[in-house]
Amino acid sequence: MERLWNLLFLWYSQSMAKEPENKEIRVRFAPSPTGLFHLGSGRTALFNWVHARKHGGKFILRIEDTDKERSKLEFEQGIYDALRWMGLNWDEGPDIGGEFGPYRQSERTHIYREYLEKLIKTNWAYYCYCSKEELDEEREAMIAQGLPPKYSGHCSHLTEAPVGKTPQLIRFRTPDTRVEFKDVIRGTVSFDSSLFGDLPIAKDLDTPLYNFAVVVDDELMHITHVIRGEDHLSNTPKQILFQKALGFREVAYAHLPLILAADRSKLSKRYAETSLFEYKKQGYLPEAMVNFLILLGWHPKDDKEIFTLPELTEVFELSRVQKAGAIFNEEKLLWINGEHIKIADPKMISEFLIEKTTELYGKKFDFDFAKIFELGKGRAKTLNELVDVSGFFFDLPEYPWGLLTWKDETSESIKEKLLLSKEALLAIPDELWSYEKISEVINLLAERHGKGLIFSPLRVALTGLKASPEPIAVAEILKKTEAVKRIDHALKKIP
Ligand code: GLU
Fold it and tell me: How far is residue 241's CA from residue 250's CA, in Å, rounded to a whole number?
């Protein structure tokens, strides 16, 4: 009987399997909205998106919310926010006011039902009446006998419901076979399905389980490539068996390597479960996150490490993704962020700085923020650091008068030089206030009195710091009134 079943399966799947009908590359990102959007989800989404864009294909977003208890709308919103933040737009979905809404599995129950009924009708699936207690008992008995636990098939031959029992599950009649598939990243992968037992595919006709709903959706959405984390590798042979039984197309698989800690151990919860928005809060740019995430498993042909999203859509190759675990290196993330800050759009950073400083200092500053960015960008690896290193523009730090001194100069001499600088600045008409003009008048003083003696007290007066960006550039941004006010403040300090 069993042999006959297996032969029938082979014949059936071969006769039903169809070649992919359309050659367009279609991928899907299929998150479950059961938690915060973290690094791993971001990486899976990115690899799918980049693969689709590289080939002019489609990127589909599918919300896998069949687990009604754990799925939450706030987590679903987090998925949209994170994808938008990273710049990963999706291409299809129900129309929600001119925008693509997502496909939600919870709205597709009637579709899965149809396919569940089909499997039951063709005898590929049957109702299982075993209770949880009975299954647990069976499992323990198998383990005690040293056997790998699986469902015994107790209900597989029933022709009607046992008296007093209600169906607990719908099970797939798993054929004993070898399921082999080609993974784009790991080559041929093979599983022995006889170890699976008859697999649960739904709790009832209206409650499909993950492995089953995925198969139906991937077929109906014409998915050509399933790109997902290695943690899903063991689901793949099961999904292939369902595909074959339903006469569906074959799909290409690519299982992305696990993300590991530096010592190759499992990534700690601290990182694995950190929301992507936590990085945003800490001052990471989406461009940097994207760059960092793509390198978690993929490497270009050369040594280039800094990429923008448009560049990735040209150079990315799925076949260059490694099998070995990808090491999560926080220092590298920081470095990548610093590099992206250097090439960031000044307008975008200015907007960020305006918002942040207004929030921090409770007022709006009339500064040229693009220039503040220009001065600070080489000294900051995160946006938060950029705000810190530029802090003296918004709030002059308190400093002891001694900081204003230069070598052995007397306080009178320092006072005199600061007064000279002040007068020189005051003499510049407002409309001529510019880097060049300030530079001209201050350098004239420096030539006469010595560079250090002019620049050092001026720097401290303008910034409150011993080390800072060059005082002329600072004065230009502060503008005349504030620059002179700060010099007056310094003059008052000197005894
Ligand atoms: N919903 C699954 C998850 O969030 C992904 C399913 C898949 O990619 O096949 O892990």
Answer: 11
